[in-house]
Amino acid sequence: MTPSEEQTGDRARTSGSAQPRRRPGGRTGRTRAQVLDAVRAELAEHGYDGLSLDGVAARAGVHRATVYRRWRDVGGLLADVLEATTSDDDWQPQDTGSLLGDLTVLNSENLAAMTARPSIAAALIAASFRSEEAARGLRRLWEDRYARCEVIVARAVRRGELPPATDARRLLVAATAPLYHHLVLLRTAPDPDLPAQAARAAALAAFAGAFGEGSPAGGASR
Amino acid sequence: MTPSEEQTGDRARTSGSAQPRRRPGGRTGRTRAQVLDAVRAELAEHGYDGLSLDGVAARAGVHRATVYRRWRDVGGLLADVLEATTSDDDWQPQDTGSLLGDLTVLNSENLAAMTARPSIAAALIAASFRSEEAARGLRRLWEDRYARCEVIVARAVRRGELPPATDARRLLVAATAPLYHHLVLLRTAPDPDLPAQAARAAALAAFAGAFGEGSPAGGASR
């Protein structure tokens, strides 16, 4: 759901994906790749507060004026990192053969991305509270990742694990939210069992019909 | 789970709680109350970026030197607002007579606190990404609120709704995390059905044994 180090780093640049590549080729494309790699490296090393256009230009070996003209400010750089992550990488959720397995692997990947040292994913989330451009970019990235994950629910429906009317997005949010709640909001030390536990709770809720479309909203006892 | 406007505002100051009051009385106590009210008002109106010791002193009608000496910086002010919220308010989760009802009301209160205009709760969460003191204070506040909510699970166990070995904290996080995930991280427009839906999903998972202590971590299909 969040970009892993690999996805935001080298893989996005070198991936041999057959999808159309939107990055312009030639010198402009190379400059962008150098600058975005420098942003990721600076962000990972110094966090949002240490990020500056001058520092990025120096690290990328690109002229300051070019960076200022094309990206304007730190928010512009972050937004472009997110855009590159979303459009260039070919991440798909793993197919383990079961809903529980798929959700557990997804949570494990998210935990690894968020607790890597340095974690670009965590730095981008923190930056989204500082820069409106970063916040917009991150919103698009979440949307893209949750959309890609809907196949997990579609596969479970095909296998007969879930009723066809299951609301994929609500199930995916239920499965993944506890991990982010701990790591980003509560800031509690990550429990290594959390990915599997949260996946299991969401799967059990789904099997019990919690995410059926048009299911009662649960107000009966209010 | 987060402080409501009422709890962080007038109620904390005027509450007739029978609990021992830790706030010192007399002029020092009045100064603190004036300053913390000013912090809440400035934060709500201008957000973290508009918060300054000078602005707080002016609004509170307290001498600048007093504010600088006692609270030092913006982080110190925020930490004290959180401390006052935690120690002075007598918030308890409502007892509706059912697990589903209790969790739904809890989520509804959290949604109201987070979407109030202005929302002090949302401002404090945003500030926690900027100030280490605010982050520490918020961590204590979350811990306090989740601890107070454990009675929801204890009541459900007493009623026979849940097995005695249910892990209260995991259940409470599962019930409340989706709301914060939408509001704080995904930043999607809040769905009015979300409090009830998330409560229902967590309750169904709990009834199915998802939060039983020592329950398998769900790795069976990996």
Keywords:
disordered N terminus; Arc Repressor Mutant, subunit A; 2 domains; Tet_transcr_reg_TetR-rel_C_sf (chains A, B); 11 helices; homodimer; mainly alpha; Tetracycline Repressor, domain 2; disordered C terminus; 222 residues
CATH architecture of the largest domain in chain A: Orthogonal Bundle
Top CATH class of the largest domain in chain A: Mainly Alpha
Shape of chain A from CA axes? elongated
CATH-defined fold name of the largest domain in chain A: Tetracycline Repressor, domain 2
Task: Label the structural class of chain A.
Answer: mainly alpha
Q: Which percent band covers the strand fraction of chain A? A: under 5%
From the alpha carbons, calculate the radius of gyration of chain A and give it in angstroms.
Answer: 19 Å
Distance between the termini of chain A: 34 Å
Order of helices and strands of chain A: HHHHHHHHHHH
The overall pLDDT average of chain A reads: 83
* Sheet having the most strands of chain A: none
> Total number of β-strand segments of chain A?
0
Region (Disordered) (chains A, B): 1-30
GO molecular function, one term (chains A, B): DNA-binding transcription factor activity
DNA-binding region (chains A, B): 52-71
Protein name (chains A, B): AcrR family transcriptional regulator
